[in-house]
Amino acid sequence: MEELSNVGSRPRVVIVGAGFGGLACAKALADTEVDVTVIDRRNHNLFQPLLYQVATAALSPADISEPIRRTLGRSDNIHVLMGEVVSIDPNARTVSLADGAAIPYDRLVLATGSKYNYFGNEDWQKHAPGLKSIHEARQIRHRLLLAFEQAERSQDEAEQRRLLTSVVIGGGPTGVEMAGAISELGRFMIERDFRTLRPEQLHVVLVEAGPRILATFPENLSNYAADYLRNIGVDIRLNTPVEDVTAEGVQVKDGFLPASCIVWGAGVKASPAADWLGISPGPGGRLPVARDLSVDGLEGVYAIGDTALALDEDGEALPALAQVAKQQGTFLGKALKSSLLKGAAVPNFRFHNRGNTAVIGRNAAIFDFGTWQLKGRFAWLLWAIVHVYLLVNFEKRLLVSVQWIWRYTTRQRGARLIDENFIAPDK
Ligand SMILES: Cc1cc2nc3c(=O)[nH]c(=O)nc-3n(C[C@H](O)[C@H](O)[C@H](O)COP(=O)(O)OP(=O)(O)OC[C@H]3O[C@@H](n4cnc5c(N)ncnc54)[C@H](O)[C@@H]3O)c2cc1C
To answer: Residue of the nearest CA to atom 16 in ligand 1?
Structure first.
């Protein structure tokens, strides 16, 4: 076993990022003879797959986020630090935070996730937020709900049309979920709660640069999703790359789409973990790792989840999905425990695909299990069960289940709040 830098004391594992991967890794190391430090720039773990429900007023932010300290606080060997990692010195084996603090490690696990990729057009972000944080979800909810209020009072037909138009950019799972949810929320609200607006005035546009939506799913499932979305009034524009995004709308090759709410869901890039280590990143800015999730040439450094470029047995890159991050986190936590306490070598990671899914609307989802597929109402039910099960603790599972059952039967959205002091950063 390699000699540890703090000979005589307990081995130190530093985990950067308490998302799906980092949290799973920390849980696997809980209550062991290893000192674990978990560093995250946020104080909470965020369940990103349900962020679109916060953005469309179905759930409140607290329903899908949990203080990291609360989740890990019961284990005496885990120390949680809120701080932003800005660099790593692999020779000195330290992680540096933005405030200048340096945290030493014997083993380092990088689980810093990814962010939306604006492909060099960073100035579009303020007009078209992605869905990566509570702040962005609230920003979208704010714009969406405010636009309905303004449309109810507007006397100008063109302005009313702009206010009732939302453009979702990117036909991947996030774009599809958002477009479906905005369309269903908008129609229901207008029908029930507004007096001067009509449901048919609502215009939700889903813009996709490629030839079909949900391109990572089999074609029949992607066609099913497209038919469902069109049925609920979503205007799908395929082969339509976005040329510009402004506060007033979106420029595409066929013209300008005036819109009040623009959502970005067109691709992600990894956190700058590769830059911190001075390593050339792979596709999507991901940090290449070996089959045991270690970073080649750097003793004791590992990367998992969205930020890592890990290959499967056939040499294919594992997708940036919660289930990959979670499985890698649990695997690495257990492997590090055996390696540090018993001297065992870290084995190769093997991903077990539990099925790729996307929700399309109130009663429709798709599942791709590789050898078989599922679509429609049953897939939606399975999607709901899986997502409730994956929530971080029993309290969240119960709260979200009750709200979903209530919402499913009444169609009401409980979180339709416009915060009058919310600062929309684009205006
Ligand atoms: C809207 C949306 C919907 C999704 N839906 C699904 C789905 O249905 N199914 C699915 O499998 N996957 C889904 N995903 C993908 C899934 O959320 C990610 O694959 C997963 O979160 C990756 O886990 P991770 O641990 O690598 O990163 P994350 O869960 O993103 O965690 C990264 C953590 O690192 C912290 N961090 C980042 N940089 C720093 C730094 N410099 N210093 C300190 N801390 C830092 C962050 O604050 C965060 O807590 C979705 C993603 C989004 C955005």
So the answer is: 322
Q: Please determine whether the domains at 12-41+83-116+268-342 and 122-266 fall in the same fold group of CATH.
A: yes
Assigned token pair, 106: 């014997």
pLDDT band, residue 424 (cuts 50/70/90): low
Quick: pLDDT tens for 320-347. Answer: 999 999 999 999 999 999 999 999 999 9
Residues recognised as catalytic: 177
Instruction: Kindly give the number of the ligand 1 atom that is closest to the alpha carbon of 24.
Output: 25
Instruction: Give ligand 1 pocket residues (Cβ under 6 A).
Output: 16-22, 39-42, 48-49, 51-52, 84-85, 111-113, 131-132, 173-174, 271, 305-307, 320-323, 325
Reported as a single tens digit per residue, the pLDDT across 13-31 is 999 999 999 999 999 999 9
Architecture of the domain whose range is 122-266: 3-Layer(bba) Sandwich (3.50)
The alpha carbon of 114 and the centre of ligand 1 are apart by a number of angstroms equal to: 6
Distance CA 109, CA 289 (A): 12
- How much distance in Å is there from the Cα of 20 to the middle of ligand 1? 7
The mean pLDDT of 298-303, rounded to a whole number, is 96
**CB 4 within 8 Å of CB 35:** no
| Average pLDDT estimate for 133-158 | 95
CA distance 6 to 300: 14
Q: Where are the domains of the chain?
A: 12-41+83-116+268-342, 122-266
Q: Does domain 12-41+83-116+268-342 have CATH number 3.40.140.80?
A: no
**Cβ atoms within 10 Å of 204's Cβ, excluding its own:** 27
Contact between 174 and 264 under an 8 Å Cβ cutoff? The reply is no
In whole angstroms, give the CA distance from residue 279 to residue 156: 55
Determine which residue's CA is closest to atom 3 belonging to ligand 1: 49
> The tokens of 151 are what?
């449309």
The torsion of the CA quartet 303, 308, 313, 319, rounded to 10 degrees, works out to: 140
Question: Based on the number of CB atoms within 10 Å of its own CB, is 366 exposed (0-12), middle (13-18) or buried (19 or more)?
Answer: buried
Distance in angstroms (rounded) separating the CA atoms of residues 163 and 180: 18
